[in-house]
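Human: We require from you a standard protein entry with sequence in single-letter code and fold as tokens, and nothing else.

Assistant:
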Amino acid sequence: MSDADRESWNRRHSAAKLDWRPSTWLSAHEELIRPRRSNPLALDLACGTGQNALYLARLGYQVDAWDISDVALDLLCVQLEASSPSFGVTPRQVDLDLASIPTTTYDLVVDINFLERKLFHAMAEALRPDGLLLVRVLMRKPAGDDRTPAYLLEPRELQTAFAQLESLEYIEDPLEGWAAVVARRTTHH
């Protein structure tokens, strides 16, 4: 991502009405993602203002919240300072085009509405055994889609992107224009 990308996202976050509710898709998976071990770690990629990171922290995760937008991260920091007790969220400004995700580190990796195909392998490799990956991103609609194709999945692309993981759920909604996968890293990786 360039400075132009960062500035674009900064403008978008500056103008947006803040909504601290987590993604309804993510919270619908609460039973599955509830931590099962002590000191669980989660990574929220392209976290924006951090509503999903805050939700994961309330579930008990220590969350690394990465985003390019310093405006979004500042809004998250204000929210964290106002929270008591303080949540285990570590905001970090990261250019996700250049990001290096540590391997075998996270119990949960979440990516909602951010598509960077180059990170797919690293996202899977970042999981500890039995770690979960939850990805929900935009995909191309069958007809008349005027969104930028580079930021849209092709049909069934997400289904094959994480073949090294055990797929627990796969959904495509071509009419609404999104796809989602829930997958687990098995111990026999």
About this structure: Helices lie at 3-15, 24-27, 30-33, 51-59, 70-82, 120-125, 157-161. DSSP finds seven helices and seven strands in the chain. The first strand starts at residue 41 and ends at 45.
